[in-house]
Amino acid sequence: MSEAFYTDKARVRAAFERAATSYDSAAVLQREVSDRMAERLTYIKHEPAVILDAGSGTGYGAAQLRERYPNARVIELDLAAAMLKASRTKQQDDAGFFGRLLGKARSSWQVCGDLEALPLADQSVDMIWSNLAIQWVNVPDSVFAEFRRILKPDGLVMFSTLGPDTLQELRTSFAGVDGATHVNQFIDMHDLGDALVRTGFGEPVMDMDKIVLTYDDARGVMQDLKAIGAHNATGGRGRGLMGKHAWQQVCAAYELRRRDGKLPATYEVVYGHAWFGRPKQQANLLPDGRQVIEFKKPGQVPR
Question: Which end of the chain is more exposed for a tag (fewer CB within 10 A), N or C?
Fold first, then answer.
C-alpha cells in the first residue's frame, strides 16, 4: 500500500481523543451528511432490533437512530474513548436532572473498538450505520468483512465516506512545497463498491455528491480539521513543523481559489448501502439483475 494511503491508526486515535471537546463546534459536514443519510432511511424498509453505529463520534447519528427506531438497541462504537464519553454526557444533559433521576435517559450501549476488528459476536446486529468513518481505515475489505461477520441474515449496512476529490483545493495548494503528503488520500467510490461485492454483500448501491464549505482564509480550513480530529495521518507525512515561508506558499496558492470573497473546501461524499443474505426475489431488481432503491426528495410524489 502506498504511504499516501496508509493511515497511522495510533495517530488517528490520539487526534480524536484530543478533539472530543471541540468536535461538535466544527462538525458541520458530519452533521449534514448524517442528516442526508437519515433521510435516505425513509425509503428503505427495514426494522432492526440491534443497530451498530460504527464510528459514532459524539453521538449525533446515534441520536437520530434512536429517534427513528425507538424500539431498537443502538450500540455506539468509536476508536476514541473520549468521543464516547462526550456522547454519554450529552445524553445525560438532554435527559435533565429529573429524567436521570427517574431513569429516563435514553442511552446507547457503548464500545471502544476498531472498525477492522469489531469486538462483537458473529451475526449479532441487524443494521450497521457508519457516517464518515471508513475513510480512516487502511483496507476497506477488512472493514466490510467485519461488517458482514456481525450482520444477521437480511442485515443492512449503510455508510458514508470521503472520495478522492475531498480537500482538492488544499491538496493542490500543498503540492510542490516539499516531498511529504499533507492531506489524507481517499478511496474511489467504485473501488468501495467492488470491495463490498468481494466481501459477500449483494448488489451494493453507491452514489456521490459534493459539499463545499467556505472559509475566510486557509488557516480557518486547518483549524476546523484540527477541531474535528482530522489530522494528516498518512505514512508519508512530514515529521516536523512546516516553516513560515512554506506556509506562506501554501496560503498564496490557496488564494488563487478565492471566489466571492471566500475560500472553498470541497468534500466528495460517497454514500453506499448493501444487504447481506437478502434473497434476490425480495429485492427491487432491474431485468439485468441490478438492485434499485429510489431516493426521492421530501414532498415528491411517488410515481
Answer: C
